[in-house]
Amino acid sequence: MEKYILCGIPMAEAAKSANMAVSTFSDHVARYQLEQESPKKQGPKAKAPFSKAMVRVILEYVDTHPVCAVDDVLSHCMEEDVDGLPSRVALQRWLQKNARFTFQRMKSFNVEPSIEAAHEHERQFNRLSARAEFEPDKNVVFVAEVAFLVNGRRTYPARSTESSSQTADVGDKKPHVCLLIAFDHTGIVTTASKSLEGRVTKDEFIQSVADIVAILDAEKRKDLFLGFDPLPAEVAAPVFQKAKEKGHTPFIFPAQVLAWNPAEYLVRDLLLCCNRQLSSGKRQSAEDCFDAVFETMSPSKCQDYIFLAFPSVTIEHLQTR
Predict the structure, then answer these.
(1) Mean pLDDT over residues 134-140, rounded?
(2) Cα 4 from Cα 10, distance rounded (Å)
(3) Residue-wise pLDDT tens digits, 17-75
(4) Residue 236 to residue 241: CA distance in whole angstroms
(5) Is the dihedral of CA 304, 305, 308, 312 positive or negative?
(6) Most buried of the four, 46, 121, 209, 215, by CB within 10 Å?
(7) CB–CB of 309/259 below 8 Å?
């Protein structure tokens, strides 16, 4: 059609050349000119994907609210000023696919440090961190043990009920899985996850620390600082002894500021990145969810967690990177 218009051929002659009636050819020319002059209609705009920030807000909410509806999650996202909120239907589909596993945090030990012990931990940490030889990005190993109640087949109704958005108290419930993590600026030192029938025992934790010390000893790494989350006194004493026997300096992070331990940032990323979908083949366990993420955690990523907890070392890091 374009060649007839560009060449300026008379309508009757062009229709004859195209073997068409003049009226039919005229209609084709009119439609062609309309299509060329009118802007093409665009299809529906593709919806923005769930951003990492949005996913973090959603997963942290469903982990701490073991019974909640899609409306509750949407309301929470609005309270957190999350951009690009999805529709209720889109969110429900996403949750049913990507949040079938949820992990509710709980304490590994029944007994927590006393108030006096917590204040002493804080004083000791402040003195230790002021020492010139204390270098978080060079000679500190960060250790954390976290326990979870696991729901492996979570569902999400559309509408909320009166009690659906309440944060559940774990009470006397026993954790389903416990995770031990040890890492430093060189990367993951060791991880161990185990299914539990009850809470972590004193002997189990002491053995876990002995395993960490043995790994460091095998790598001929000496004079390190080993940082732990708050421990009951009857657990801390033998754990500290194990570390000191190999020339390391153990300490406890203040309970009032969890973010002092870079392992807290690692755990948050672990819960964000682990695959929470139901496997179509073999039944997936919580340990499977975690192990796949640990394999991707590089030394540089571990260093980032350290810099988040200790911003004072960030400038030096950026200068030498």
Answers:
(1) 94
(2) 9
(3) 777 776 676 666 655 554 444 444 454 444 557 899 999 999 999 999 999 999 999 99
(4) 9
(5) negative
(6) 209
(7) yes
Average pLDDT over residues 168-196: 80
100 and 154 Cβ atoms separated by less than 8 Å:
yes
Rounded to whole angstroms, how far apart are CA atoms 298 and 116?
38
157-195 burial code (b ≥16 CB/10 A, e <16): eeebeeebbeeeeeeeeebbbbbbbbbbbeebbbbebee
Average pLDDT, the chain: 81
Mean pLDDT of 144-165: 82
What region, left, alpha or beta, does residue 84 occupy, with left being phi > 0 and alpha being psi -120 to 50 degrees? Answer: left
DSSP 103: E
pLDDT at 213 over 60: yes
The residues that bridge with 181 in the sheet, in sequence order, are 144, 191
CB 230 within 8 A of CB 113: yes
Q: What percent of the chain has pLDDT over 70?
A: 75
> Taking the CA of residue 107 as centre, how many other CA atoms within 13 Å lie in the half-sphere pointing to its CB?
13
Torsion of CA 289, 290, 294, 300, to 10 degrees: 100
Phi, psi dihedrals of residue 284, rounded to the nearest 5°:
-85, 140
pTM of the predicted protein model: 0.76
- In the chain the beta strands, taken as DSSP E runs, fall at 102-106, 140-151, 177-184, 187-195, 225-228, 249-252
Long-range contacts of 315-321 (CB under 8 A, 24+ apart): 316/137, 317/137
| Residue-level pLDDT at 21 | 76
CB atoms within 10 A of CB 211: 15
Euclidean distance between CA atoms 124 and 157, whole angstroms? 49
